[in-house]
Amino acid sequence: MSAAFHPEAAARALLAVHRGAPRLPGLTPPPPDTAAAYAVQRAVIRALGGGAWKMALLAGRDRHAGALPGQGTVRTGACLPLPADACIEVETALVLGADLPAGAGPAAAAAAIAEVRLAFELVAPRLADRKAAQPLELMADGFGSAGIVLGDVLPGWRDGMRGPLGIELWLDGRRVAAPEAVASLAEAVDFLAWLAGHAAAQDLPLCRGDVVITGARIGPLPLDGARIARARAGGAEVSARFVGA
């Protein structure tokens, strides 16, 4: 880790934005490597409290994870403050019904899932220009996540979710035409087994009640000032309302 980069200082800057300060132009200097970015994540979660995780691809290639504050996970129908350039993703969220220690294999990971819910992930980094931010800066900032909205349990999720869920999305009552990515339950379980080891190594072991999102099925899509979002898949729904941050 570069001597010029101090994870605690970067975390303090990000925490100030979490608590209402203006967004940052960037982290100066930026994290030099993934170990440094994870150190920032740990420091932020020590201050805010954990309880949620997201799968992410660093620079669109390598699988990593974002540790997210549990206080950022809310139930459907919540009203949330968001900046004007925020984006939304429709996801599926795993909710753990048991602790999951390091070394857990796929069978144990699958058994630890209590339910799978339709969800929104909101994307609004603590950095002012998401497109200009370096990948490691976004990684340090929990990959830009601004919260998770948990909707209804997906009917039949135990059948494997092998095909499209038939997700429909509306923003301010207007149907949004967007392609849906397909991801099976087996793929989510594979990530969850990997995450058990990663989370333990970060001294943030997976616990009963933790929420894990495993990648966008729709999005990210700009909200473009929309104040109400609603999605449906089968018999499950999720909704949220937004106000300016």
Question: What is the CATH fold-level name?
Answer: Fumarylacetoacetate hydrolase, domain 2
Uncertain parts: none
**CATH C-level:** Alpha Beta
Shape descriptor: globular
Protein name: 2-keto-4-pentenoate hydratase
Organism: Paracoccus versutus
Keywords: Lyase
Pfam family, one: FAA_hydrolase
Structure write-up:
- The structure is a single chain.
- By secondary structure, the chain is α+β, with helices and mostly antiparallel strands.
- It has one domain (49-244): Fumarylacetoacetase-like, C-terminal domain (Fumarylacetoacetate hydrolase, domain 2, Alpha-Beta Complex).
- It contains five helices and 13 strands.
- It has helices spanning 7-18, 34-48, 106-112, 135-140, 185-201, and strands at residues 51-58, 62-69, 73-75, 79-82, 87-96, 113-123, 145-153, 168-171, 174-176, 211-213, 218-222, 228-233, 236-244.
- Strands 1, 2, 3, 5, 6, 7, 10 and 11 form an eight-stranded mixed beta sheet that branches.
- Helix 3 (106-112) packs across helix 5.
- The radius of gyration is 17 Å and the shape is globular.
- The model has no long low-confidence stretch (mean pLDDT 96).
- Residues 75-219 form the Fumarylacetoacetase-like C-terminal domain.
- InterPro entries: Fumarylacetoacetase-like_C, Fumarylacetoacetase_C_sf, Hydratase-Decarb/MhpD_sf.
- This is 2-keto-4-pentenoate hydratase.
